[in-house]
User: Which sequence fits this backbone?
């Protein structure tokens, strides 16, 4: 089954409507980045939860996609090849960009992801050094071992918990890892526009993740990202209450964006929404697939990610 085929296993006699996925989660993480379950485990859990379509959206890595596809094929769970790229805003907030239905084997795309993962390693090494300077004896070797794929702050959090320096991942962020805390080192500067262009370069459908708290969203960021090629806005996210969903739905409609959604599931103790714990309307997945089909009709726009020198 191709990753753009939104149908689930079924006979030829099933009508188009019957074949639409019914239970969908378009935002999940595995051990390819900072999730706690392997791609195969995640897909098995999705099947148990009654999901028939998930997107695997690991940070800066597509390493889990083959395994997720293979497990999904045996269980009737369609897996959309996805990505999440974390970027910072000059104004101080963060903007995470999701990508869906990627031509993920694309060389230039994989080269850019490799660079982003290398930047993650340099950042994590510096964060470990800073934490050592304030007397915490965690090691890069341990953090690297906890991260099976793309390393991130949640892996440093895990190392801090092991040493009794934090009681939970969010406690580790609050004490040590968030901006302004002793272990913090800024991420390499990537503009959200460039994350959008990178995803479009791999013929993916870009969507702005969990946008509700971005201060400059309506007046500034969204128009800029739409101009760069954004096609979706994450609307049905985790615990967003109905009024937030309505606001984002209105915003998505005004900009002609697909209102994507999902749990942002990472495993226990990381994000609160369970896998499949957020309803995503089936037509959203259908629109996403149609948008991807349209992108496949045209050559991919070229784009080379250039990371700035780090001090
Ligand atoms: P990084 O990309 O290495 O900067 O790590 C950011 C990731 O850590 C996010 O994508 C979230 O999954 C997770 N994260 C960020 N803040 C928190 C927090 N306060 N508690 C738990 N997880 C968090
Ligand atoms: Zn994450
Ligand atoms: Fe995110
Ligand atoms: Fe995420």
Assistant:
């Amino acid at each position: 089954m191709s990753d753009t085929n939104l149908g689930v296993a079924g006979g030829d006699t099933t009508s188009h409507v019957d074949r639409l996925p019914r239970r969908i989660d378009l935002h999940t993480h595995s051990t390819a980045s900072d999730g706690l379950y392997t791609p195969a485990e995640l897909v098995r859990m999705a099947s148990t939860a009654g999901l028939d379509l998930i997107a695997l959206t690991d940070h800066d890595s597509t390493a889990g996609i083959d395994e997720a596809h293979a497990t999904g094929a045996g269980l009737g769970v369609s897996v959309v090849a996805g990505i999440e790229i974390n970027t910072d805003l000059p104004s101080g907030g963060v903007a995470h960009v999701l990508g869906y239905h990627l031509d993920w084997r694309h060389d230039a795309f994989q080269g850019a992801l490799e660079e982003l993962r290398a930047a993650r390693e340099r950042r994590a090494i510096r964060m470990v050094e800073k934490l050592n300077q304030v007397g915490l004896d965690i090691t890069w070797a341990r953090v690297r071992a906890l991260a099976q794929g793309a390393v991130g702050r949640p892996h440093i959090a895990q190392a801090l918990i092991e040493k009794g320096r934090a009681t939970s991942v969010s406690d580790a962020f609050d004490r040590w890892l968030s901006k302004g805390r002793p272990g913090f080192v800024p991420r390499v500067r990537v503009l959200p526009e460039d994350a959008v262009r990178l995803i479009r370069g791999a013929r993916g459908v870009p969507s702005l993740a969990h946008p509700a708290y971005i201060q400059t969203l309506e007046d500034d960021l969204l128009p800029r990202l739409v101009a760069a090629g954004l096609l979706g806005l994450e609307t049905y996210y985790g615990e967003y209450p109905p009024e937030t969903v309505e606001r984002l739905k209105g915003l998505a409609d005004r900009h002609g964006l697909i209102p994507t959604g999902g749990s942002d599931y990472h495993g226990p103790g990381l994000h609160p929404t369970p896998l499949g714990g957020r309803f995503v309307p089936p037509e959203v997945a259908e629109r996403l697939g149609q948008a991807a089909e349209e992108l496949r009709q045209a050559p991919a726009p070229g784009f080379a990610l250039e990371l700035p020198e780090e001090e």
